Amino acid sequence: MTEFLDFLKHKYAYVAIGEFQPGKFDEAKQLYEKVVATYGQGFGGSYLLQEPGTDKSIAIIFWSSVEEMGTNKNDVHEAIVKEISHLLVEPATTSIYEVCSTFDPPASQSEA
């Protein structure tokens, strides 16, 4: 029964959309990877997307709950986020979304 109830729980995605100062994306990417490496309980993976040919990006970080997202914030996390914020043209737009649907490719496609 627990597995079924876990299946009914929705995951959450923290999404940040921003633009870095010209030529600063690679530095921001390194800092992003550094901060994500600090995450533990409740962390469900992440993506960092870059619009080709620009310094515009979208960061998507998956969490099992909003509460666990909050428990992963600490002094190290805050210091790295502050470093990243100095590289932005303007503050990133951030939101929290509920993951309502996921779709994985069939096993035959994922093995190719």
Short recap of the structure:
It contains five helices and four strands, in the order αβαββααβα. With 112 residues, the protein is α+β, with helices and mostly antiparallel strands. The protein has a four-stranded antiparallel β-sheet.
What does this structure look like?
The longest helix has 12 residues, at 25-36. The chain is of the alpha+beta class. A four-stranded antiparallel β-sheet has the order 2-3-1-4. Helices cover 36% and strands 29% of the residues. It contains five helices and four strands. It has a single domain (9-100), classed as Alpha-Beta Plaits.
Helix/strand-derived category reads alpha+beta
User: Class in CATH?
Assistant: Alpha Beta
Q: Tell me the number of helical segments per DSSP (H or I, 4 or more residues long).
A: 5
Largest sheet: 4 strands, antiparallel
Task: Tell me the total number of β-strands.
Answer: 4
Query: Could you tell me the radius of gyration in angstroms?
Result: 16 Å
Number of domains: 1
CATH architecture annotation: 2-Layer Sandwich
Poorly predicted spans = none
The SSE order reads HEHEEHHEH
Straight-line N-to-C gap: 35 Å
Strand order of the largest sheet: 2-3-1-4
CATH topology: Alpha-Beta Plaits
Mean pLDDT: 90
Percent of residues in beta strands = 25-35%
